[in-house]
Each structure stands twice: as structure tokens, then as C-alpha cells.
Design a protein that fits this description.
This protein is an alpha/beta fold. The chain is built from 7 helices and 12 strands.
Length: 264
């Protein structure tokens, strides 16, 4: 995670961002602190921090930094020029922590865990707005998974993690309107126990959730999806990250997974 010391709306690179809608820094800090404490104190997750950099307000959204696989870090190639300087700082952090750095060809855009999820035998990837489909196969070869690429079709859901969340190897929740019909069918075949999210709850970023075993951190005021998760045996922790929605992100956008195992 990256503390929101310099988080603000300084430009517009997705439909959620507006220079006319500023961030309240103190509220954003309080919301971020509550998420950090929920993860570290209540759920027992070890959270590592990267030092924020002035002039890089979106660095707080660490999910986009890259994809971690074992002791390798597949560094992102950001599409928006405003975020491209972040890559060097994330690379330095992982180098300092003895990770192997893997870079993709510069001509291929890839925005890390925001557009790529490892679940079971598959690497689920989104493309169109931020990541290129040509990068998916390269990443799949590195992590030794079969790849399932889906085209994102609604600019409000510009990253895969805004409309798709794998919960286990056989369960996920997603907003079907984020994909075309063929991709919806592919997802249904590969993840039969899917929770289909309504548009109103998708727009509250319910799919941008953090999964820790059978515990899920997700936005509040999404009663239908929350109840379905509870019926499946998951414990849901509701968080208010309204200041980060202003930039098009929520809980999952604020974390990058460093270690995967059978329970997390």
C-alpha cells in the first residue's frame, strides 16, 4: 500500500475523475488509515508500505504497479503518461526487496493487477482501455497459467478490477455489462459459481473488493451482492472509500498482492 500523502485529482484519465471535484485530504487519509488498520489489525494481513512521491497522486493505487508472481515482479507499462513515472519508484521498491524484475516490451501497455487476476489454473485479463491483449500471453507464460482475456466495453469500468473479482478458484462476482456476450459466456463456463452484480452496485465499486480467505472487504450500501456473499459463507467488511471513488478506485485499487496461498 502507499499512503495518500499526495493524493489529489490533478488530471482526468478516466470518466470518474474531474478537476472540478476536489479531494478532501483529511477525509481521504482517515479512510485510507481505516482500510490499513482493518487489513493489518483485524484481519492479520502483513502490509508493506512504499513511500509516496510528490507529483504522483495516483501512486496510492498500487494495484496498477504490476503483478507479483512468487519472487518476481512483472512491472507495469502505464498507458496514461501521467502515471508512467510511477514505474521507476515501484521497480526500486521491489529491487530493494530482492524481487526479480520482469519488464514487458515498451510497445505493450499492461497495468498490472488492475487488469490481471490469478485464480486457480487461469490468468484472467482485461484489455482495451488500459492494457493490451498482446501482453496477456506474455504474462501468462511467466506465471504458467492459461489465459482468459476479456474486452472491457464500458469506459466507467476501465480496469478489470472495477467489474470483476475472483473470490476463489470457482467463485467470482462480476458486472456482466462490462463485457460483451461472448466474454460473459466464457466467464460463466470457467467460473460457474458466479455472482452477477447489478449496475447500481457495480457503480459503487462492489467488484473492487479485497479477498482474504473467507473475508471480503468491499464498499457498503450494496445489499444484494453483500447478502449473496454472506449466503456463500463469506464475512463481509464494509468500508467507505468515497474520496478514492473520485479518482475511479476503491479497496482493491489501493492494494497490490505480494503473496498468494491457499487461504489468501
Amino acid at each position: 500500500m502507499c499512503p495518500p500523502d499526495y493524493y489529489e485529482i490533478a488530471y482526468e484519465i478516466n470518466p470518474w475523475m474531474s478537476l472540478r471535484r476536489s479531494v478532501n485530504p483529511s477525509v481521504a487519509r482517515t479512510q485510507w488509515d481505516l482500510l490499513y488498520k482493518l487489513l493489518s489489525d483485524q484481519l492479520g494481513v502483513q502490509v508493506e508500505l512504499i513511500t509516496p512521491v510528490k507529483g504522483l497522486p495516483d501512486m496510492v493505487f498500487t494495484a496498477s504497479a504490476g503483478l507479483v508472481w512468487q519472487r518476481s515482479f512483472i512491472r507495469s507499462n502505464f498507458r496514461p503518461k501521467q502515471r508512467q513515472p510511477e514505474a521507476a519508484f515501484f521497480q526500486s521498491w521491489f529491487e530493494a526487496h530482492d524481487y526479480e524484475i520482469i519488464t514487458l516490451p515498451k510497445v505493450l501497455y499492461f497495468e498490472g493487477e488492475s487488469d490481471a487476476f490469478i485464480a486457480g489454473d487461469y490468468l484472467f485479463c482485461g484489455y482495451h482501455f488500459r492494457s493490451d491483449i498482446q501482453a496477456h500471453q506474455l504474462v501468462a507464460e511467466i506465471v504458467q497459467k492459461k489465459v482468459l482475456s476479456v474486452a472491457l466495453r464500458d469506459e466507467r469500468f476501465y480496469h478489470l478490477d472495477t467489474c470483476f473479482c475472483p473470490i476463489s478458484d470457482k467463485t467470482a462476482m462480476y458486472y456482466g455489462g462490462g463485457f460483451n456476450e461472448n466474454d460473459r459466456l466464457n466467464l460463466k463456463r470457467q467460473i460457474p459459481n458466479s455472482i452477477l452484480v447489478r449496475l447500481d452496485e457495480a457503480l459503487k465499486f462492489i467488484c473492487n473488493a479485497i479477498v482474504v480467505g473467507h473475508k471480503i472487504i468491499a464498499p457498503g450500501k450494496c445489499p444484494q451482492t453483500t447478502e449473496l456473499l454472506r449466503l456463500l459463507g463469506y464475512q463481509v467488511y464494509s468500508v467507505d472509500l468515497s474520496e478514492f471513488i473520485k479518482a475511479g478506485g476503491n479497496a482493491k485499487c489501493l492494494v497490490l498482492t505480494l503473496e498468494r496461498n491457499s487461504t489468501a
